[in-house]
Amino acid sequence: MAGAGLKAVQTGRMVDLLTALPAPRHTDPADAPPLRWGVIGPGVIAGDFTDALHAHTRQRMVACGSRSAERAAAFAAAHGVERAHASYEALVGDPEVDVVYVATPHSEHLEHALLAIRAGKHVLIEKPMAADADQGGQIVAAAREAGVFAMEAMWTRYLPQTDIARQLLADGALGEVRVVTADFGGRATFDATGRLWDPALAGGALLDLGVYVVSWASFALGAPAGIIATGTLASTGVDEQAALVLTSASGGQALLSTGLRAGTPSLATISGSDARIETDSPFWAASGLRVRRSDGVVVHWTDPYNRPYRQGMSYEAAALARFVAEGRTESPLHSLDEAVSTLATIDEARRQLGAVGVG
After folding, report:
1. C-alpha angle 184-189-195 in degrees, rounded to nearest 5
2. CB–CB of 319/332 below 8 Å?
3. Is 95 left (phi over 0), alpha (psi -120 to 50) or beta?
4. Could you write out the three-class secondary structure of 18-64?
5. Nearest Cα to 335, choosing from 143, 173, 85?
6. Where are the beta strands (DSSP E) in 66-146?
7. Residue 17: other Cβ atoms inside 10 A
8. Pick from 151, 147, 99: which is nearest to 127 by CA?
9. Closest to 38 (Cα-Cα) out of 57, 65, 56
10. Using CA atoms, how far apart are residues 113 and 146, in angstroms rounded to an integer?
11. What's the whole-model pTM score?
12. pLDDT over 50 (residue 22)
């Protein structure tokens, strides 16, 4: 039913709830053709991705690879994976694997994405696609030369609520987009040798959580023409908190916040001259959204599909399978060039903050 989950507060006139908002498309990840997946880096996020894949799609994780045979075997047993490989090379060389999910820390994404691409595999690379824009560009060039499909795992782009926002933007329903906001902060225990805090592991808030808010701004406004960043650094030199003001070529602005010291609401908005989108929390996972129109009508769509939090990664996996079946080599909803542009924005913000490890 097109109007599933719609509620409205009416001011001044009746509203047809069934046509007030466009219905999200591709709401069932099981409608995508099946692919055989292999994962590099069998950690927590790989486990959540695999479980979402098996629970909600026809995709199957058939192999996993690790530098530790024991770790690979334990992951396979825990998540119903057929084969465990004791090296990444063996994983990408597995003839039964169609697409490789790179789930290692982003400091290793370049090496592991190139390994899969050179083996002729399609590749989904956990966000951010790389540690910086230069590395991202290397991945893009290699994938295009090899003719394989490559995509950053920015799963927020494939959620039902994001598709509603996408349709509203494409139809011009918001009018001229002027202000975009997004925040994503969490409380992380400081560990100088941990992934989040170590500059050698591409640590910092911007690359880990900030990529979501920068990507949201890119979704609504495109690549920024101007970037202003302020924030604080941890004792290790990585960014622990950051606030960004991005200005688009059209004069629209994005106000963004991220950090590792305090949890924040995880809300996002897109404000236009005619209407405003306000997401429910968290904006980066399946939740819902509210549209406030200039005529005073407020329409609220709540996600009815029961795929919360990382179960929503099933949508990006299904989207990749559809794109591959269509003969594409990158996502039409989130291009490789846009993923690199997002990294370039983060590079500049980190440079302005003086973060360690930025060229």
Report:
1. 80
2. no
3. alpha
4. CCCCCCCCCCCHHHCCCCEEEEECCCHHHHHHHHHHHHHCCCEEEEE
5. 143
6. 83-85, 99-102, 122-126
7. 15
8. 151
9. 65
10. 12
11. 0.93
12. yes
87: tokens are: 């090296």
Backbone torsions φ then ψ of 147, nearest 5 degrees: 75, 25
Can you say how many angstroms the Cα of residue 255 is from the centroid of all Cα atoms in its chain?
A: 19
**Amino acid identity for residue 295 in this structure:** D
Return the amino acid letter for 202: A
Q: What is the DSSP letter of 187?
A: B
Specify the residue for token string 């490559």: 150
What is the C-alpha to C-alpha distance for residues 126 and 307, in angstroms, rounded to an integer?
A: 19
Structure tokens at 93: 């060389």
**DSSP assignment of 215-261:** HHHHHHH-S-SEEEEEEEE-TTSSEEEEEEEEE-TTS-EEEEEEESB
> pLDDT (tens digit, 9 = 90+) per residue, 265-285?
999 999 999 999 999 999 999
Interval 292-305 mean pLDDT: 91
- Collapsing DSSP states into helix, strand and coil, what is residue 95? coil
Q: Are 277 and 165 in contact (CB under 8 A)?
A: yes
